[in-house]
Structure formats: C-alpha cells, structure tokens
User: Fold this.
Amino acid sequence: MKSVKAVQGEKLAIEGGKKAVEKLGPLPTKIGKDELLEIIDMWEFNPQTQAKIKELIQKEPDVKGPHLFRYYNPKPSKVAAAEAAMSELIGTKYCLAVNSCTSALVASYKALGIGCGDQVIVPAYTFFATSATVVSSNAIPVIVDIDDSLCIDPSAIEKAITKRTKAIAPVHMRGAPAQMDAIMEIANKKGIPVVEDVAQAASGSFGDKRLGSIGTMGCFSFDYYKIIVSGEGGFITTDDEWLYIRAQSWHDCAACWRPDRFAKERRDGELFCGENYRMSELEGAVSIAQIRKADKMIAGYRRAKNRIKDAIEKFPGLSFRRLADKKGDTGICLVMFLPDAAKTKRALEYIKAEGIPAGGIFDSKVRDWHIYSYWEHILDLKTVSHDGMPWSGVVKQELPKYSRDMCPRTLDILSRSILVDIDYNYSDEDCDAITNGINKVLRVILK
Ligand SMILES: Cc1ncc(COP(=O)(O)O)c(C=O)c1O
Assistant:
C-alpha cells in the first residue's frame, strides 16, 4: 500500500496531473450477437440459410450492439425516424410514437385535459380500448349507435352531447372512414375536440385528407393485427403543438425526456405526473419499414377488394356496407348485409365451408370485446379502486343509462353482417375463387 504521503505527492488531474483513468474496457455493449441471434430465430428461413446467417454472425468480431432506447442514443433514433415518416404519411405537423393505440388514446385524452366527470362519446361498435381508455382516464364513456357504415352515426353524436362532453371519438372501423364531414361539423359547431381512433384504418382517407389528420388528434395501432404493424406500437398525430407537448409529457412519466429535459415549466399545464408509453428502437425500426410500404399495401387491398365486390351478383336482400368515402376505404375487408340474423348465420357457415376467410360480427351467444353489450366493465360500473372512480365522480342522475340493449340498431346491423377478410397479395385467381364461392352460397341462401 502506498503511504499517505506518496498519495498526497501525486498531482491531481484537475490540477494538470496524469488522469487516473485514461480508458476503461474494452466493455461490450449490453446488447450484442446473442440478442441478434435470438431475433434471427424469429424468421422462418430454411434451416441451412438460418445456420449460415448464424455462422456468419458468430464469426464476426464483437461490435457495438444497438442502443434500443430512443433517448441518449449515439445513433439517429429509429423511433424518431418513424415519427417523421408517419407525420409525412398522415400529413400532420406532429407525431408521437407510443407503445400501443391504447396508450395513444389515454395520452390523447390526458393531453386534452379530460378527467373526472367529463364525458367522451364513443361508438357501440369498436374494440373495447376506445371506451376503456375513457374510464381509465377517469371520465365517462357515452356509448352511441353506429350506422350502416359500421362507424359512429353522426346524428347519434348530436343527440348525446351534454355540457360535460369533452371529446368525440369516432372509430374508422374495419378499414373504412367514419362520416368525418358531418362529425367535424357537429364538433366544430360545439367546440368539442375529436380524437380519431385510426387503429383499424391506417393510411385510409376521407376527402383529400388522411384519417388521423382531420380531427384534433389521431390514434394509431401497430399491433400485429393491424394494417401496418410492429408487433406492438402506436402513434399519435396532431397539428396542435400544445397537445403534442402534453401527450409527450404524459407518455414519458413526467416530461422526463422532453427536448430540454430539466427545464422548468414553460407554460401552465406542461409538467404533470404521467406514465411510460415509450416505443423501443426495435419497434421503431420495424415501423419505418412498414410505413414505407403502407401505400403499396393499400393499393393491393383495394384492387383485390374491388375485384371481389364488383363480381358479386345482385341478390334480393343483399346489400353492402355504406362507405362514407369510397376512395378512402383501405379495402382490408368486404362487409355484406343479409336480411336477417338467421340467414346471415347460415350463409356464413356455408361461405366458411367454401374455404373463404370470413366471419360474422355479432352473434348473441358469442362474447366479443368489439360489441358494447359485452363491455360489462362499463355497463356494470366496475372499478379498479376503492374510491369507485370514475363513476363515483358523478352524481347518479348524470351517469348515462347503460344497458345491454341500449343500442338495438347496432346489434341489428352487426347481427346481419358478414365480413370477408382481404389480403393485399391476392392474385386475380384468388379473388375470382372467393367471388365464385360467395355467389354459389348466396344463390342458395337468397334464392
Ligand atoms: C379500434 C381499436 N382501437 C384501439 C385498439 C387498441 O390497439 P392496441 O392493441 O395497439 O392497444 C384496437 C386494437 O385492436 C382497435 O381495433
């Protein structure tokens, strides 16, 4: 051990002495070849190719692995690049990547300042997340009928508006736009923000605008079942800088990572306690590749859908879902209506037996989170906490009158719907085989 005197004799680095630590390491990065090999396992290359790729990687020297966190990233962030690509695709000034559409919806409701006692109007047919996030934002969902577009009925919105209405959340269901001209007219007249749920219709449009750029905020899902996907993921689009800033604050705990991280509040309402909805760089990277392909995919969906639909014969009692904007439909599915639930059920059974990827939408005996009558969490005023929120935040008379049959038109329309899934890669032969199968069945059912 050196004597205290000797140690005292060494000049401190701060005074010009030799630095004690010139270099540490080499230190491998946290994420390296092992992690890449796990990722490669997920692709179904043939076993020889898989082995070759793995061997090549194993032979490589250790190099720096990716920094999968978007912030403090030594390389340009993939998440930031995905946001830029999404802004460009949708046509909004701002875009925030998050980890799901559920997160996007909560962050949007929070950005708008929605809370205790406020009401948000939602359609009776949507994936539960649109309404559940109203409740988890401590507000009250007001559930209204859809129409034959399978999207929210603008006249039902108008009737449901109260002094407590703080947002309208139209959902562009099953790839097709809601009636955005009528919805925006009502919203603008009353000064109510519109949160578009674009989870199922990314890159669709209404008029000359992409969905997600018409309302106040747009919420997208990139979960695996959507049009453009990253496994899990979501985006918020908006032209409103302040709402973007507030959503950004909510999405990373408490504005921990805003551009000037440690700055004091610049304006009342910028700093508040949030959650963590950040997207990882892996999802960011997959998202960029997917966003680039969006228009090509949509062109494929539309081509296949139109070919199938145009060749379906005319049958008495057969109609198709009304498209609020035919050109803006993404074409991911074809929805037909039959005259009654019994015929629909039988036709569906026959159509499936023909090998056609089709499904019903509502069967009173099958539970489904897309249909309001199964949202017992809301209908039965369920709560996660002892305080009974959000329901306890409102006097009983001001709560909507929830019941399983409160939107009979929605249940009727959905019970008569058959949905045929479209793939953007279908060849003309695939499309014709599907149409032939549908025609064959409808000739029997609707004769
Ligand atoms: C209409 C709609 N909104 C929201 C969501 C929630 O999306 P995510 O799974 O990304 O949270 C979905 C997902 O199914 C959806 O279909």
In short: Residues 100-102, 126-127, 129-130, 171, 197, 199-200, 221, 223, 234 surround pyridoxal-5'-phosphate (CB under 6 Å). The mean pLDDT is 95. The longest helix spans residues 281-310.
